[in-house]
Amino acid sequence: MIKIENITKKYELNGPTVLDNITLDIIPESINILIGSSGCGKTTILKILSGLEGYNEGTLVVDGGVGFVFQNGAILPWLSVYDNVKLALLHSKDTEEAKNKKIMKALEEASIEKFKDNLPRDLSGGQRQRVGIARALVINSDILLLDEPFAALDIATTYHLYNDILNIWQNNLDKSGKRKTIIMISHSIEEAVTLGQKIFLIDKGTLRNTFSNTMSYPRNIKEENFVDLVESIKQEILKI
């Protein structure tokens, strides 16, 4: 469960308000997309959810483990793919054998297992991003946070990663058969409609509007409902 109610955030007591009384209705086991202009507070929301940053007022409940996929992958250049993913298990009490099983499972789920011995310098941008995804998966988190994971990637790689994210969400179930809750930042309306079941438009630290998307996966960008939702979001953004 995630509860974000009336959250207000300032970096300094008398400084500008980064988040202003923001409430997001996040449904468990769903894919949620945050969109909005740069500096509107999207990344701050993810950092607060992950515990990397605090907040000044409001109610926050995060019931479950959290995995964070950063925009640039945030992988260490001197470590192999395998060892970068292993970093997430640094404080795990598992045996080395158990850790290895978890790492290989995460690498396979992120479609990067063939490159487990490679250094980041030998990887493409999409492959480096997959390493970040695998590191978030290896801790078997209930909640997956993604900060513009496809921002610097080419179109073909981006669409492959869309499928990876959907496969992870649809097939990576916990022992009770529950899916992960995904919250992702995007600057692309089409991307948001392709992946999101709820799309939150953030404007200057406030929630401008919420769009629900009940279309089944995989989604067809030429479908009338898809085109109409993209246009509705565009029109709302133009009002800002």
Structure description:
By secondary structure, this protein is of the alpha/beta class. The chain folds into two domains: 2-65 and 141-238, P-loop containing nucleotide triphosphate hydrolases (Rossmann fold); 72-140, no CATH class. Helices cover 34% and strands 23% of the residues. The protein has helices at 42-50, 81-86, 96-109, 125-137, 155-171, 189-195, 224-238, and strands spanning 2-10, 17-24, 31-35, 57-62, 66-69, 143-147, 181-185, 198-203, 206-212. It is globular, with a radius of gyration of 18 Å.
Shape: globular
CATH topology of the largest domain: Rossmann fold
Q: What is the H/E string? A: EEEHEEHHHEHEHEEH
- How many domains would you count in the coordinates? 2
Number of helices: 7
Which strand-content bin applies to the residues?
15-25%
Strand line-up in the sheet with most strands:
5-6-7-3-8-9
Estimate the mean pLDDT confidence. 92
The N- to C-terminal Cα distance equals 31 Å
CATH superfamily of the largest domain: P-loop containing nucleotide triphosphate hydrolases
Query: What portion of residues is helical?
Result: 25-40%
Oligomeric category? single chain
CATH class categorisation of the largest domain: Alpha Beta
| CATH-defined architecture of the largest domain | 3-Layer(aba) Sandwich
List unreliable stretches of 5+ residues. Answer: none
Structural class: alpha/beta
Total strand segments? 9
